């Protein structure tokens, strides 16, 4: 396991949810926070509103999180957990015995990035454009991009139709293009009639880039 993976993640919670009831309470707080931040943004997304939406007292909320920024960090960590699990499944499948055709690989990558970004776009904007996350969480995101960029480079290097070039650089470009375009598509979507074609166009752009 890479050294980066063994580092402790930032843990903003005061009380660890050991018992089933505690786990349920934390889950309720996080789901309520998603809704409140989506509706009201960060400034007006108070702990009182989050507690009310979760159906608990503010005092109960403070047993688990010291403030709303700690809740935001927990949401970011959960989002990164989802991204990591999704990337792991996709790359493991792509590198398996039945190697995927390049077009299928890119189609799966585009679909995975879109699915990840389409979950709560308002919260996504808050997490990654609001400048509210601590450096430790941002560093975890960079580590994930580096690690899976290296693995994607290995997958691309085994595809004969990919032009022989710097595979790590190619993988980096693919990830950055996916991040940028799916991010913009979700947060600043084009006209509704154009949206169904965007995923296919993005796959075509990536395919032409890799084939040269």
CATH class of the largest domain: Mainly Alpha
Instruction: Spell the H/E element sequence.
Output: HHHHHHHHHH
Give the CATH superfamily of the largest domain: Tetracycline Repressor, domain 2
- What name does CATH use for the topology of the largest domain? Tetracycline Repressor, domain 2
Distance between the termini: 34 Å
DNA-binding region: 46-65
Protein name: TetR family transcriptional regulator
Domain HTH tetR-type: 23-83
Pfam families: TetR_C_15, TetR_N
Description of the structure:
With 212 residues, the chain is mostly helical. The protein folds into 2 domains: 17-66, Homeodomain-like (Arc Repressor Mutant, subunit A), CATH 1.10.10.60; 69-211, Tetracycline Repressor, domain 2, CATH 1.10.357.10. The chain has 10 helices and no strands. The protein has helices at residues 3-6, 20-44, 47-54, 58-62, 68-94, 102-118, 121-129, 135-157, 167-187, 195-211. Helix 2 crosses helix 7 and helix 6 (102-118) packs across helix 9 (167-187). The longest helix has 27 residues, at 68-94.
Quickly describe the structure.
The protein has 212 residues and is mainly α. The protein has two domains: 50 residues, Arc Repressor Mutant, subunit A (Orthogonal Bundle); 143 residues, Tetracycline Repressor, domain 2 (Orthogonal Bundle), CATH 1.10.357.10. The chain is built from ten helices and no strands.
């Amino acid at each position: 396991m890479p050294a980066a993976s063994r580092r402790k993640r930032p843990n903003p919670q005061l009380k660890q949810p050991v018992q089933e009831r505690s786990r349920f309470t934390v889950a309720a707080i996080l789901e309520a926070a998603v809704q409140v931040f989506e509706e009201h943004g960060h400034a007006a997304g108070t702990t009182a509103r989050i507690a009310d939406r979760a159906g608990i007292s503010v005092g109960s909320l403070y047993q688990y999180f010291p403030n709303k920024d700690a809740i935001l960090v927990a949401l970011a960590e959960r989002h990164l957990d989802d991204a990591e699990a999704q990337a792991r499944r996709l790359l493991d499948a792509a590198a398996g015995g039945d190697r995927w055709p390049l077009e299928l690989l890119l189609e799966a990558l585009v679909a995975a990035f879109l699915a990840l970004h389409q979950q709560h776009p308002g919260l996504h904007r808050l997490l990654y454009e609001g400048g509210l996350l601590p450096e430790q969480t941002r560093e975890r995101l960079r580590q994930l991009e580096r690690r899976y960029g290296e693995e994607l480079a290995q997958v691309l290097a085994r595809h004969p139709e990919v032009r022989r070039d710097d595979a790590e650089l190619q993988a980096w470009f693919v990830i950055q293009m996916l991040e940028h375009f799916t991010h913009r598509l979700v947060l600043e979507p084009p006209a509704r009639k154009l949206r169904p074609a965007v995923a296919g166009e993005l796959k075509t752009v990536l395919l032409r880039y890799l084939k040269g």
